[in-house]
Amino acid sequence: MAGLKHLTVGLVLGLSISQANAQTASSSTLADAWLQWQQANPAPVAWQYAFALRHDTAADLRNRRRQLIAELRTLTVSSRVAGRSDRVAALTVWRERLASWDDDQTRTPGRMDLPWLGANLRHNPPLSRIVHLGVCDTPGWVEVWSLDGVTRLDWVPDLTMDDVLDALSQEAAQDADHAAIVSPNGDITRRGVAAWNHETSPLVPGSRVMLELPTRQGLRAALPFPGTTHEADLINTRLPALLATRLPGDDCTMTRTP
């Protein structure tokens, strides 16, 4: 508690100039808003599950989601023609999950919490650029997008990608060479999951994992339409990027900026 108190004091001192210049009840920067948040919510904050949404991120999220849904639809049709019912089922679930998303339950990927801003004041944005900010309770799950569909697995200490793969069906990862791991703060890491490139990958609560679709030769052999490898490449890139914009938990407290 003493360390946390000293950290808060240091942050307040580092931000005192902007705070002292605030002439109204509204905050002038995101860090100012976090200081007000902390005053209103004195309980300890899990800053690794804090988030904020910038206006420039929010502006194109719906269009990005619609494009990805269209790409999934193209790949679903091709998979159906190829007789790949397993892939059709999984891509359909992915599409339906994307279509059900609430665009308000989003964030800008990357750290925008008070401790990080206190150490990186040059990256402290004006509050006029922020749609909302908030903090989620630490979730008890990791979320996996695979040929099993979309699966929530209970997080346990020392959980790794190997544990996740063991919990999925054998078919879920049989064609996957890589996984994209999205951390709670929206960082994306690409890790090997096949026998030839296996990497040990620990997972923290709230991680989201996408087992990449096979591309190039593997997918070309399975699907009859030209161009579907391009669709798979796009999905492998764009789906993790969209997953990085989701809130880092289910039980979140959010406040919109003035």
From TrEMBL:
UniProt keyword annotations, A-Z: Signal
Cross-referenced Pfam families: Caps_syn_GfcC_C (PF06251)
Record domain Capsule biosynthesis GfcC-like C-terminal: where: 154-213
Signal peptide: 1-22
Gene3D superfamilies documented for this protein: Outer membrane lipoprotein wza domain like (3.10.560.10)
Protein name, UniProt field: Capsule biosynthesis GfcC family protein
